[in-house]
Every structure is written in structure tokens, then in C-alpha cells.
Amino acid sequence: CKVQSLISYYYKWG
Amino acid sequence: MLELRLVQGSLLKKVLESVKDLVTDANFDCSATGFSLQAMDSSHVALVALLLRSEGFEHYRCDRNLSMGMNLNNMSKMLKCAGNDDIITIKADDGSDTVTFMFESPTQDKIADFEMKLMDIDSEHLGIPEAEYHAIVRMPSAEFARICKDLSSIGDTVVISVTKEGVKFSTRGDIGTANIVCRQNTSVDKPEESTIIEMNEPVSLTFALRYMNSFTKATPLANSVTISLSSELPVVVEYKIAEMGYIRFYLAPKIED
Fold it and tell me: What is the ipTM of this complex?
């Protein structure tokens, strides 16, 4: 199993 | 100039205890909306989002948007010096590199101020759009904490599955397996003790129990917890902070290689 970074689910801002 | 007076100072103490093990340093953002924080853990798989709305403070002055970088361990050390019944006021001047926490006892016979150094933190804010979830489970927060603690003595991961039968928490480890099923239960007198399952589609996801256990440190903030699950999204574990806002934890699921 692997876990993807939250950055791959959401978008960066600021 | 920033001045935020929180009559129920224990709320801030509890907030700090629930995030300080997940995140080391974080920017607290202050705006007309409220006092907020968004921070990821060092591995970027878990995120905490806090909002304490301005209306929840007895006095809320924030002349301009301000971001204050704090070491949460140090902040926790300072807030531990406040009594549980104390009123806490957070003060900062524009451009200052310190923040002051003022603690007043309810009878006003003891007033303390603690000044803490601020720090520059490069933080990445994530935009988290509103989403439709396949299933939303609301259950007593203490029950959820108990389940996470119990399962972590057996295994490292939890599979959370929602079907029309209920919500199932499963783990597996060297010594064996464990399954805990909670069924919908709205017949109890106290709504905060009920378990409510809204399911649009069955969903099953796997998460690291280490993070789930860390999230349950927020249990003293709310009687209920809401767990929102969707097969393509991180889980959201939300504790509502009465009349003030929320603390939400996001955790990326484990997926097949």
C-alpha cells in the first residue's frame, strides 16, 4: 500500500 | 493591532492539545472572519484546519489580516499555565515579533501575561473544495476514540467500511484480526450519543491508525465526531467547537500500489 500526499488531492494556494 | 478575548479559555487549551502532536510549527491567521489555522504534518498526508469564528469571542479586534507563526509546543507550554476557568486574551501589535497571552482568573484576582516569540514559517495552504461524500458517519467522539485506541493494539491500519448494515472498523495484525460494527442508533434520548449514518454509496477505505489516534486528541472539544468518506478523497474527521467553529482533520487513504 502507498499513501499519496494531500497535495495530489487538493490545490496549493498562497 | 490584534486583541482577541476568549471567555472560555479552556477551548484554546484543548485545541492546542489536539494539534501539537500532529504539527510542530504553524501559522495562525487572523482576519475579520476569525482565528484560523491550516497546517499539514511533516509527511504531507494529514492536515488540520481550525476555525474559531470572530463572533465566538467576547471581544475581537483585528485591524488587518495577520499571520502569526508559532511553535505549537511552546504555545502549549504557555497555555498550560492558564487555569481551566481562565479568560484568555491573545494580543499582538502590528509588525511585532511576539504575541502575548493574557490569563485572567474568573474572579479577576489573578492576571498573568506570557509573551511568546513568533517565527517565520513557510507554509503551503491547500485549497479544499466542498465535496460530495459517499458516506457521512456521525457518532459519539468518545466511542470513535475508543475504537481507534482498541484497534491500534491489534494492527497499524484501519479499514473503515460503510454499508447499509452500518459502519465497520477493521484491522489485522500479527496476533489476529478485529472488526467493530456500529449500527445506526437514533433511539437514544441524548442526540450526542446517537450514531447516524448517511450513505449515498457503500465505501471502504484504509487509513493509518497512528493518525486517527492523533485526531482523537480533539475528543474533549466535542461530544460528536463526523467522519466523511469518499473513495477518491481523503477522509475528513470533524469536531465541531460549540458556537465557535470546528477543527477538521484530513487524512489521505492508503491505496494499492
Answer: 0.94
Bridge partners of B89, per DSSP, are B5, B102
Could A10 and B127 be called an inter-chain contact, meaning their C-beta atoms sit closer than 8 Å?
A: yes
Tens digits of per-residue pLDDT, B104-138? 999 999 999 999 999 999 888 899 999 999 999 99
**For B42-72, how does the pLDDT look when each residue is reduced to its tens digit (9 = 90+)?**
999 999 999 999 999 999 999 999 999 999 9
Is A6 in contact with B234 (Cβ distance < 8 A)?
yes
Chain A residue with minimum CA distance to B249: A6
- Out of B43, B125, B233, the one facing A13 most closely (by C-beta) is B125
Q: Mind telling me how many Å the CA of A5 is from chain B's nearest CA?
A: 5
Q: Which of B44, B157, B208 lies closest to A7 in CB terms? A: B44
Interaxial angle between packed helices B72-79 and B10-19, expressed in degrees from 0 to 180 and rounded to the nearest 10: 150
